[in-house]
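2024-03-11 09:14:02 DEBUG pipeline.ingest accepted 1 chain
2024-03-11 09:14:02 DEBUG pipeline.ingest length=369
2024-03-11 09:14:03 DEBUG pipeline.predict start
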Amino acid sequence: MLIGIYNFFREFRRYKIGLIGLVFLAFFVGMAVFAPLITSAEAYYRWSDITYWEEHPKGVPPEWMNFFSTKKSATQISVKPTTAAENTTFTYNYQFDVPPSDIIIKVSTTATERRQLSVHVSRPDGIQLNNIVRIEHTEKTRILFTSKEVRDWLIAWAREYETEENLEKIRGREAFINPLLILFSKTQRGILLGTAENLRGRYDVVVQLSPPTATTAKAIFAGSVFGALGTDTQGRDLLVGIVWGSRLALLIGLLTAVLSETIGMIYGVVSAYKGGVIDEVMQRILETVSSLPFLPILIILSYIMRPTIWNLALLMAIFFWVGPVKTVRSMALQLKEQPYIEVAKSLGASGWRIIGKHIAPQLLPYFFA
């Protein structure tokens, strides 16, 4: 048995593409097995729960981009508050070239009656931005600095530092202005166009409730870069999707490959061994299936059938089995002329025994490759 395995791998090494595929397969199998150690299982199970990802930046590149860029982008950080009297203060030490993609503030209280909630920002240049946000608060409030209200407030404040020429340029395009660029820029020409100088230093974001009450607050300065692979437009960590998705991809890929290659190999060997009219009919069937448009039919069948992993693998195997048939048939045509096949026939071996015992095993290295 060991000699047989050794001979198999010695033959398998001839197929370089198969060896490369084996390396990739081992890598993805390892990633699938150790997925719980690489990323959070909860993130995978709540992949479609948008509320789980609301604190993540939307559609940003990975953090390692900072190593290759002269401009350093802000990374994700959650700031702990300091509370004094009715004020809750979040201190953010901004030392980047590209500002955060958003500032998310969550405020919750045990009181059920409505209160006035206001947000103020103290900049490193000493300018105090009062009442950037002023709304009514009940039990839970979520504030985004990329909201229309905050953007309109910052645009109105920054107008006095902008030139008439630049004000004319942004007229009618206010909705496309990034409010975070205004907040983290110096008060000079270009503040509304995003060309003003960066303003580094300490920023204090103050949340105030009136009348005061016991408050639980949290501030997330969403990064302009995030994680190892970045996020999608809904804020989902792409590393989680790829690591945990490798399990599904491997299952579908391996099922499809095993089914289609098995069917294709058997079909090609039988066609070659039987020959004559049977071979001609089988080859015409092969050509008919090969000419069918795979994608439209798959879309229609997926609509009719419930889209499960097993259904997808089966549907793809139905169309992909034609791939190896021509190669297998040509190899089988050579093998069936070998002397040991003639000996097996003279000893009374049946056609299926010859196919299964003497021809198919010779094709296993190609099958695995």
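2024-03-11 09:14:41 DEBUG pipeline.report The mean pLDDT is 86.
2024-03-11 09:14:41 DEBUG pipeline.predict end
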